Amino acid sequence: MLAVALYVLVVTALLSAGAWLAERIMASLRWPRRGVWLAALALAIVVPAWRLPGALPGLSPTQLMAPATARPRQAVTPLVPGASRAPHRFWTAATYEHVLLGFLVGWGVLTALLIGRLIAAQIALRHRARHWTVAEADGIAFAVSEDLGPAVLGCRHPRIVIPRWVLSTPAPGRHAALVHGHEHLCAHDGQCLLAARLLVALLPWNLPLWWLWRRLSLAIEVDCDARVVRRGISPARYGEALSALVARAVPVPRPPVGVFEGCAQLGPRIRILGARPRPRSRWAALPLCALTGLAGLTAATFPAPPIDARMGARNQARRTELQWAAQRAQDARAVRRLLASRRPDALAAAAVVDAQPTFNMRYVHGELEARTSVRSGAVEPLAWLRQAVTDAPSRPALLILERYFCLQRLDRCDLAAVDARLRSLDPDNGTDSLDTLAAAVTAKNRAGIDAALAAIGHTNRVDTYGTQLFARLADTLHRIGAERLSMAYAQVEDIRDQLIMDGLFAFDEACGRNVERLSARRVSLCRNASLAFERGDTFSGSEVGSGIAMRLWPAGTPEHRQAARLHRRLDFMEEQSSHLMWPPGHELQTLLALYDGAVWRQIIRWSLQYPSEQDVLRAQLVHAGLPVSPPPGWKDPYDTR
């Protein structure tokens, strides 16, 4: 952003120089001057907007330098192609952030003050205009004020304002004041000055823009004086009348919106009025024209800062890389603390944290590319999990987590031994058959699908123990200070969802699609398996199981009615859960609770108390005072049947 501001300053300065030279040309030819400054003001916005296509103001080439902690013994270099020298050691990313913050805050404050000043002046003008009277002289209508003026005031409907003492002045002075105001009114000078003032208020840090605005106001007065003189008024007499009017004008501390006569520009105007006309030469303006063109060409072709979309993407990739590097360092510290405690939950949490995938952002062939890498060959997490299972042999949840790591993270694992130990600890659980079902569905092995469904159907339920297990892991991570409680819960929640997702997709592929084409044996196997899923401890498993059971059992049977009631209650609870995050009238309290950890501490307490996700959600709804069972007239908004 600072690079953009510096670029705009340089371009505006070049345009100001070109406008000053162009004004000299207009003066030599006795042409109107205000168009030059209006064009310079417009180009001060158009040229940067044209030269910075796709710019990302929040990303500067010096903003995303690596901090000193990331490279302890190396010089920090900016992400600018071809950079040969490292920046000063004090100009780091943190320093840039502070400077940028101060710049933006100052920008906002100055803009608010300047625009507020304009609004306050307009309000004061309306208040004073209530007491003005309307008069007419020399065919020109005007408002008579007590002390304000001469001026042309107003924004949408400007009008000439003459102080009362002007009416008692000699006729030439009064006529000059009225004609001058009438020329301002016909040329819409007040609106031009207002547009320039708004532009300056929006970019108050652009000092050349302030100078352009001052030169525009002088050019407007000079052009108006020239038009008045062309009406037949003597320049000497008009200059005397103008000096007398401005000398008696009451200064206003807050000039209102419009064209207000002041003494600051009186000297240049009188000198221009009294200047003798010089003989015009066709070739005299050629050097000035060449310099003007050179200044405009330089402003149009001045190199813009390299913050286009590609540089912004490269910087964003670098920032993301640094953030992930910091996260990996934090995870490494957390793993060391967890291993030092030697408790089973701490060892399992260390395995989960150490095996988290890493994201690498790279800039390849003009595009931002994100790659995910997993430590598939590391054996440390598996060793930690095996030690946790050895220390707590009666907890099947740790075995399920070990089995997940064997399937998803590591290549060499004795799954048969893990499954045998899991069945010995919990023979009524069919979780160990989910991966067999998924593999059979992928291979389109009908015999394998039937065997896996039969194995699941012979069990009582499909449990992952994820609710209590990962509540313990999140609580352990929070207790060692590795993560805020909400972040710790989110970090381990992804694995909890993945424990059953592949099996659910496979179960839906085998039993939930083309139900009318299923054989009688497959229908019977799917019905038994759906009961095991309904009794499972995951919300998604129970919902998918009840939904498939509704399709497989004929309408009106007890099994269909039971599955429909369960599915309806789960859908209603899922809809009510949206009010837990943003309850009506308590959005701010909930948002604060998400950050201070109160909500997550309560969720972990319920997760340690209740065995299933359904029970935890039910406890949340009851605690929030929300209904758990659907009312008689409730209809699922997502049910299209």
Structural write-up:
The chain has a five-stranded mixed beta sheet, sandwiched between helices. A two-stranded antiparallel sheet has the order 6-7. A hairpin with a 5-residue loop joins strand 3 and strand 4. Helix 12 packs antiparallel against helix 13, helix 15 (434-443) packs across helix 18 (485-512) and helix 23 (598-609) crosses helix 24 (613-623). By secondary structure, it is mainly alpha-helical. It has helices spanning 2-29, 34-51, 93-129, 171-186, 189-202, 207-230, 235-248, 266-274, 286-301, 309-341, 344-354, 380-391, 396-408, 415-425, 434-443, 446-457, 466-479, 485-512, 520-534, 539-552, 558-581, 587-596, 598-609, 613-623, and strands at 133-137, 140-145, 151-153, 159-163, 258-260, 358-364, 367-373. Among the domains are: 2-67 and 90-131 and 187-274 and 287-301, no CATH class; 426-623, no CATH class. It is built from 24 helices and seven strands. The longest helix is centred in the first third of the chain and has 37 residues, at 93-129. The two termini are 54 Å apart. It is elongated and about 115 Å long.
Largest sheet, strands/sense/barrel:
5 strands, mixed
Gyration radius (Cα, Å) is: 39 Å
By DSSP (H or I, 4+ residues per run), the number of helices equals 24
Low-confidence stretches: 54-88, 359-368, 372-377, 585-590
Give the averaged pLDDT, no decimals. Answer: 79
What is the count of β-strands? Answer: 7
Distance between the termini: 54 Å
Residue fraction in strands = 5-15%
